[in-house]
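Long-time lurker. I teach an intro course on protein structure, and each term I like to show students one example going from raw sequence to a predicted 3D structure in token notation. This year I'd like something fresh instead of my usual example. Would anyone be willing to generate the tokens for the chain below so I can use it in lecture? Attribution to the forum is fine with me.
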Amino acid sequence: MSPALPPTPEPQAVAARYARRDAAQDAQRYSLYASASALQAQQERLRTLRRLWQAHGWHSLAGVAITEVGCGSGGNLHDLVRLGADPARLHGLELLPERAAQARERLPAAVRITAGDALQAAIAPGSQQAVLAFTLFSSVLDAAFRASLAQQMWQWVAPGGGVLVYDFTVNNPRNPDVQGVPLREVQRLFPQAQITSRRLTLAPPLARRLPAALLGPTAALLPVIVPIARTHRLSWAVKPFSQPSSS
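-- Reply from a regular --
Happy to contribute to a lecture. Here you go:
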């Protein structure tokens, strides 16, 4: 019998999960041009993000330093530029080199893109007003690594800023490579945060079955009738200006 191999480090395991996912998925399913449901979900997410940040007191993104962990090919960073963020104040971290290369190609040259493990990123503590994690934690299955990553992100955030987490809340029985991230998990990862959370995103398998002409009004009504139809949360975890005493 051959000796047991040591556990695969979590960043390598995450990269393998994404490789399997990319090989199995239809890219058109997530195309904003080809898929009406993907476009509706993106627009709802942006509206919710804008409302959360305006309620936080940010009436402009000019001068706001934002880092996204797991930026992929740069779609969210591109949205932030369109919302008025300064490209020179944006930073994307991406584990997969090929996705980082796509982000560099598609985004303004002033946006900084760093390939590699986020735990090794050279970001000064307290230097970011916002750190984004969009469908990131659901792909990190090692609980200790997930907690370390959250702690690292929390250290980067300046007091009064926060971590923005967008992820699905339920497990997918057809995909063992992901794990749902309910609100209680966000609270566990950021125990010192003041969290505002919103349920959104019509369940993608359901949304993809709706005719495009009905998707807008139906997407607004279905979650009211059947709350479970919303499968994701957008949570804004704010770092207080004064940290609670440990005594």
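Some talking points for your students: The chain has a mean pLDDT of 86. The CA atoms of residues 3 and 134 lie 38 Å apart.
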